[in-house]
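Q: My labmate handed me this sequence with no annotations at all. I'd like to see what the chain might look like in three dimensions before we decide whether it's worth expressing. Could you predict it?
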Amino acid sequence: MKLELGYFHVEDIVFGSKTFYENGILTINKDEALSIVFEDENIIDADIHIAKSGDPIRITPVKEAVEPRCKVSGGVMFPGVTNKLVPAGQGRTHILKGSCVLGVGKHWGGFQDGLIDMSGPGAKQTMFSQLLNICLVADTNEEFEIHEQQKRNKAIRWASMRLAEYLGNCVKNMEPEELKVIEHHPLSQRSKEEMELPSVVYVLQLQSQMLESGYNALVYGWDANRMLPTFVSPTELLDGAVVSGSFMPSSSKISTYQHVNNPTIMRLLEEHGKTINFLGVILSNLNVQLEEKERSALFVRQLATSLGAQGAIVAEEGYGNPDSDFILVINELEDAGIKVVGITNECTGRDGKSQPLVDLSEKANAIVSTGNVSQYLELGPMEVVIGNLEALARDGNSGGWSESVLPDGSIRMENNGMFCADSSTGDYHKTVVEY
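A: Here is what I predict for the chain of 435 residues:
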């Protein structure tokens, strides 16, 4: 497949009388943008705020992050979700690089929703503090889940995708400032030199533990809980074939923004033909019952061996129960003679002394850690709060509790509730050290 990514590098975002991009400035017609949001009758109130890196702003509860993009040729955005089901990963996509749409609750949060600080010590916890964020703050009439700890957040998440596509369309007919061309050929069409390099596959374990629909990651709109491990081209993932779910402690979540910007995949593509033969991506899932976990691990092994993989990177979305899926896949691949590097976060307690993963194996001897979900944080007040700070303490945020918010607006929380703070795609610099 051949995918062209056209970059327009956004340096600032302002509101104005029309939506357009010029000389690094994205101007947004707020009324027009909100009309796109209100296409969903479930959204009863909404506004848009801009948050820039270094601003004294705290954002919570954050439900989703989507990069403003549009398809110029060869498909649609978010196939099978907000648009018709067609193949992704080919043609040209234009991108407002450096900007991001954040879906934020005006009142209600939940277990899976996170917090972002745009400045101060908290900004070091998440990559989203480094972006120009277009914050869609909305209320919905989804009364059935307002007081539920686990929320589907469908109306706000879908509105975030529609808003991101609306913004992206302002550069649809423009010539990009930078054009990145990604070609990923079928195995039978690769050169002798490529085939002689070590063959590597990337295994991405998507969060899919909820048996009820509406919570899990989507692959072309299909609930990942209802799929078996599937081989795809990396260009499909980088072009919107996977949409983030709404079930996961927030720090471990892989947002839709991160799926299309997956740094591990981008690096594997850069190394293809130089140091490795990058075979492609195996999308796997995370299950609840042991038999399902074992079946998925077996399918990953069969796919990887059939492709001729000699090495694999296995990335887990989450921790706790999914650790067993993570270790099972590593064991199966190692037993098949495939060398594995795993990427995951850890749950080692506030003192760092607890067992890092629920399940362990001597075969899992090369693990990249993205940080400790239990890291304890004390953060001072911010001048501006976008969303509802009380949601951190009131609504079951995975890193918050009833006394998380102090009277002066300062907070106490665990890293668990920081938005995508230690997800496994390799977006940020966090790790752990032994001392």
